[in-house]
UniProtKB/TrEMBL annotation, chain A:
Molecular function GO terms recorded: transmembrane transporter activity
Transmembrane feature ranges: 20-42, 54-75, 87-109, 115-134, 146-166, 186-208, 247-265, 285-306, 318-336, 342-366, 378-397, 417-436
Name this polypeptide is given: Nitrate/nitrite transporter NarK
Record-level GO cellular component terms: plasma membrane
Organism: Herbihabitans rhizosphaerae
Coiled-coil positions: none
Domain annotation Major facilitator superfamily (MFS) profile: ranges: 1-441
Signal peptide stretch: none
Subcellular location: Cell membrane
Annotated keywords: Membrane, Transmembrane, Transmembrane helix
Membrane topology qualifier: Multi-pass membrane protein
From TrEMBL, chain B:
Transmembrane segments: 12-33
Protein name listed in UniProt: Uncharacterized protein
Keywords on record: Membrane, Transmembrane, Transmembrane helix
Amino acid sequence: MAAGFLTRERTVAPPGWSRWLIPPAALSIHLSIGQAYAWSVFKPPLEAGLDLSGFLSALPFTLGIIMLGLSAALFGTRVDANGPRWAMVVSSACFVSGFLISALGLYLGQYWLVVLGYGFVGGIGLGIGYISPVSTLIKWFPDRPGLSTGIAIMGFGGGALIASPLTQQLLGTFGATGANPDVGGVGNTFLVLGLIYAVFMSVGWLLIRVPPEGWAPAGWDPAAARKRPLISLANVSARNAIKTPQFWFLWVVLCFNVTAGIGILEKAAPIYRDFFPGGTTAALAAAAAGFVAILSLANAIGRILWSSTSDFLGRKNMYRIYLGVGALLYLALTLTTNTNKVVFLVCCLLILSFYGAGFATVPAYLRDLFGTYQVGAIHGRLLTAWSVAGVLGPLIVNAIADARIAAGVQGPGRYTTAFMIMIGLLVIGFVCNELIRPVDEKFHEPAVEAAARTEAAA
Amino acid sequence: MSTESWGPVQWIGAVLLWLWVLVPFGYGLYQLLTRIPALFGS
């Protein structure tokens, strides 16, 4: 009975079901799992309460991002086969369990349980949850795939906006702030957050629906849409997709676009302080916090704005902008440094908007190249690029900045070498995007077999 | 697959569903926006 509730058959939309009910169901999941980006709020009380190093306090987040990529790659095919409700229930169970295990670990004073719970178990929930609504949204919005996936993936960016102030308030309520935070209070915060997310995510898996077989939006002509360049007429399986050069070119594109964004995001506050060091210490700290906030806003807005634009300009053209203009913006930052604050802000905002847009546009790009058959699984495999970039970006920026600081370099000069490397990566990504052509027919699923499989899955 | 056949109950449900995600998002957005003026010295 319970298993039946989770099957794809039980999620087929009844007559009268509007496709505009699907984005909020997807957002219920993505706004929750986006909490991962607010992990830094937990770091000070954990470090002070358990006497942890910065490396150890970051370990649950780092492991969580690694598990995100791995679980999305490993379980992507199962997510496509079992349907979005199954995926959202599994994601919710893992993500919430991560909080509850972490709370238990903090009550017992066993930090390894936080790493295991939040990082490993919760990280699996992140990966499955991230890809769970993507193929469903693409099927409901074949006319606007960029817009629909942009809404959901903006939710992942927006999750931290909710979690960050909420976590700070809970930590304050439970006496887990200041120089001597109550570790049990941190545990209470994990427990309450876990319960909140259990309720919030349930709306997602209760309301998610897949369209009936053969459904299309009124007035939409698939044949006309597919006349545009790079939009495939056929489907490619996940197993075959990773054998194509297109998949690996796109892997490099995503990896380097994310690396370039992290280049600024990772050290946003110190970059601002080193570029514009004037004013009192308090005013500078507030301005740096404002800089981080405005970058987060650009990251979130870029996801929906540029991804929606890709429905009109085409996916390849959008990545030309993200990578080509992104490289020019980094060049402008390197050349103008701190001579003009407005130029600095505009460059940083656009770079971060392209960073977010890179995530949001890629599912629609995959749909164009490989069809809808196993787009969720292919997306899951592509997200390993994110895991690599999550390590590569901070490594480049931190290593170079630290070396420059050790050499006595002051001001913007601490970052210009890292920025030049980012330009190089973006240019490589631009070339890879240029090399993307329609997928060779030998990788296409046989039309009859694909239709039968899709029908069986539906 | 459209809203043409919806009655008041469906409309209220749909509005509540969107509020379910937009209210928390609005709260987070408000908290974020309050930090931005400091960037411009306000």
